[in-house]
Amino acid sequence: xxxxxxxxxxxxxxxxxxxxxxxxxxxxxxxxxxxxxxxxxxxxxxxxxxxxxxxxxxxxxxxxxxxxxxxxxxxxxxxxxxxxxxxxxxxxxxxxxxxxxxxxxxxxxxxxxxxxxxxxxxxxxxxxxxxxxxxxxxxxxxxxxxxxxxxxxxxxxxxxxxxxxxxxxxxxxxxxxxxxxxxxxxxxxxxxxxxxxxxxxxxxxxxxxxxxxxxxxxxxxxxxxxxxxxxxxxxxxxxxxxxxxxxxxxxxxxxxxxxxxxxxxxxxxxxxxxxxxxxxxxxxxxxxxxxxxxxxxxxxxxxxxxxxxxxxxxxxxxxxxxxxxxxxxxxxxxxxxxxxxxxxxxxxxxxxxxx
Length: 355
Fold this sequence. Notes:
The longest helix has 25 residues, at 330-354. By secondary structure, the chain is an alpha+beta fold. It has a domain at 14-194: Cathepsin B, Chain A (Alpha-Beta Complex). The protein has a 6-stranded antiparallel sheet with strand order 1-6-2-3-4-5, sandwiched between helices. 54% of the residues lie in helices and 9% in strands. It is built from 14 helices and 6 strands. A hairpin with a 2-residue loop joins β2 (111-116) and β3. It is an enzyme of class 3 (hydrolase). It is found in: Lysosome membrane; Nucleus matrix. Residues 258-278, 290-320 are annotated as: Disordered. This is Ataxin-3.
């Protein structure tokens, strides 16, 4: 595919792209096509002048814009036809009654030029395969031999005018290379507009995400809700991607310890989380909750006692006890560790809001 010359759409220069894609090179520029259009305009003016320069038809002709080109870069079929005559090529209307009577199989032709509502594009055979070289596509589109006739029939049904290019096309690298090999195309090229729309949507999503992360007040500081959302998203997006299941489990335990590191570091010295055994994890959890109960009893009114049995059992305790008892599979322990880390983040957020 890389050897195929394919000019993409710029402005309304589809006639230029059509010719260059047909000839497989930068053979024509807007200046050269404009020169051909001006020459055709002058020839038409001379023919109109034969009826008299004072005639109403001649004066009306002079007031009308050129029918061979406009300011946007559009060029007529006459301009394209005259440009191809330089190369000894001729255009024949494919869907004319005269050509249809010949009953020529399209697969036996070499190239087609298609037009609909001032848009021109080329369909050409390179090597032994057909390609749609429409400048509105992001790249050449492979067309199978069996689909070619159906493709042209569909264009005719949609109102396209199709011209057969007769004559010997100039040699090109792509034609020589594809004579020896056949290419395959897994994905159809997109329209340029579709690609731009997807890029625009991605930029909008990225901008919205940046606004959320920067904060609504513009100061770069997140409020409590946004900060909590960011933490939860960050934690949930962390991928546990180590080499074996044992390493995965250690990473999950480390993740769960990070969620409560702000509280634990003030009360209990920490060892490396990757070196914790299941028994050490269980003991650490129990010590932590006992410390929390003692602090709660200090702030409770006289006569009121908080009983340990009234404290709900969290997923972190269940993970510790299950690890100690070895009743869970390593996959279950990994899932429980991730759930535990999310609950720990939520509990910390609630504590911070109360303070």
